[in-house]
Amino acid sequence: MTIHIINAPFEPWQEVANYQQAYLGQMGRFGATACFVGTMRDFNEGENVQAMELEHYPDMTEKYLGKLTEEARRQWPILDSLIIHRYGHLQPNEPIVLVAVWSAHRAAAFKACYYLVEELKASAPFWKKETLATGTRWVESNTSS
Amino acid sequence: MAITVKFFASLRERLGCTERQIDFSEPITVAEVWTLVGSGQPISENVLIAVNMEYADAETVVRDGDEVAFFPPVTGGGRL
């Protein structure tokens, strides 16, 4: 169960492959890998977005995601999970977040991955500041889905 | 007794402050902390609170050495 909060671009599929090889490669016990990758859009609320600053609350973010992971483990028989989340300066098309969950069967992997993504996005202490052609703005309200 | 108060995102910019230390003589609530650091205005429903990096509310009592944080709603998107 691993959580990384990083300030540099990352390649999510390579991270999944590396993690699987390092921590699960020889196990032969998982039959399902569920992955979610969130990517930065170049539009929001009808405006073109040129770049974004993602601020977070260091330490609380890791602590909160750790609690979510523990809750997911309590609810579903998952074997392992990997969360990687960016902060700092982002450009459109860059991955923001990866959530990967390994389990023996697909139901637990799907459900735990969905739970982690939804709870992370609803409550983890991250804030977006968008750069538009006309200046910058904080994203103040939650956008659905 | 002393606590650390932190501000994030638009609230940090609006108050022009990232972090403050405040001293007090008896345990106080988060609402009283806000009064001390928030220009005397009542705490808004749009301000979220964490005490020692756990979500808390305005009635939570803070003690010596605690870390209190105030911040706007997070912007990861609503639940589906």
How would you sum up this structure, described in words?
The complex is a heterodimer of chains A (145) and B (80). By secondary structure, chain A is α+β, with helices and mostly antiparallel strands. Chain A has helices at 12-24, 60-75, 106-123; strands at residues 2-6, 32-39, 43-44, 47-48, 51-56, 78-86, 88-90, 95-103, 126-132, 135-138. Chain A has one domain: Molybdopterin biosynthesis MoaE subunit (Aldehyde Oxidoreductase, domain 3, Alpha-Beta Complex), CATH 3.90.1170.40. Chain A contains three helices and ten strands. In chain A, a hairpin with a 2-residue loop joins strand 9 and strand 10 (135-138). In chain A, helix 2 runs antiparallel to helix 3 (106-123). Chain A is elongated, with a radius of gyration of 16 Å. Chain A starts with a strand and ends in a 7-residue tail after the last strand. By secondary structure, chain B is α+β, with helices and mostly antiparallel strands. Chain B has a single domain, classed as Ubiquitin-like (UB roll) (Roll), CATH 3.10.20. Chain B has a five-stranded mixed sheet. A two-stranded antiparallel ribbon of chain B has the order 3-6. The longest helix of chain B has 8 residues, at 30-37. The chains are: A alpha+beta (145), B alpha+beta (80). The A-B interface holds A 55, 57, 59-60, 63-64, 118, 120-129, 138-145 and B 6, 8-10, 13, 50, 53-55, 69, 71-80.
